[in-house]
Amino acid sequence: MRYQDFYDIGRDQPATASYANPNLLKNRYGNIVAYDAGRVKLSQIGDDPSTDYINASWVDAYKQPNGYIASQGPVPNSFLDFWRMVWEQNACTIVMVTHEVEKGRIKCHRYWPDPTSTPPTQTLSYGDVTVTHLRAEAHRHFVVRTFLVRCNSEERTVKQFAYTSWPDHGVPLTTAELLGFRNAVNAGTPNKDVPIVIHCSAGVGRTGTYIAIDTLVKQCLDMGGMPNVDAVVRDMRLRRNYMVQTEVCIGNVPNPDI
């Protein structure tokens, strides 16, 4: 299929929560929404129904319903919601496929404590969730940050894999770079039964491309032969608008040669 053939898939679905007045400042972009049928719902706080909202959508993984959470890059008004989502969904892996700033524009606000920031912060609290930065490991194309996340009397380890070689509205120089990153993410995810949280800036373009590649590789390993790229992209677009956002991104979703 051509990029134009994907454009309207799924876009007739309602997204009333995304457009509700109390939630507008929780959205990074006005045209990127979470469809009502597939949005991730947080536990409601008190009598306020808007507290169950975050701009994030469930996406099926290969043979794993709701195996991914496709999220926008958190904005300051959604930091608390983001970490609450990570905690409530038992996620242990966050995949970040954007820089914080690209071409002078903020693409994703720093939603984690960072001892290298100004001022340095080792621990931050987001509502009932406390996040402590334990360490950061730099690799050629990505950084792995490890956090200790606490809520009430429980604590868990969460890793953030931040890809550093993806230009905005472009693609990595080679598929091998992204496949290597994908392999590192999967090897570093101890619990395969919980969703992986994936975000870029809007949570659709690079996020969708990463999910498509991970899905296609798993299909190839399981079934052999050439997987159906069009079907994978179509299914994602039924869950979140604009997934695999541009023609360039769709053209670079590979039929992986395993």
UniProtKB/TrEMBL annotation:
Its keywords, alphabetically, are: Hydrolase, Protein phosphatase
| Domain spans labelled Tyrosine specific protein phosphatases | 179-247
Q: Where is the Tyrosine-protein phosphatase domain?
A: 23-247
Membrane-crossing segments per the record: none
Any one of the GO BP annotations: signal transduction
The reply to whether Hydrolase figures as a keyword in the UniProt entry is yes
Q: What is its EC number?
A: 3.1.3.48
- Lipoprotein listed as a keyword: no
Give start-end of the signal peptide.
Answer: none
- Single Gene Ontology MF annotation: protein tyrosine phosphatase activity
Q: Which domain of life does the protein's organism represent?
A: Eukaryota
Which Gene3D superfamilies does the record cross-reference, listed alphabetically? Protein tyrosine phosphatase superfamily
Annotated family: Belongs to the protein-tyrosine phosphatase family.
Know the name of this protein? protein-tyrosine-phosphatase
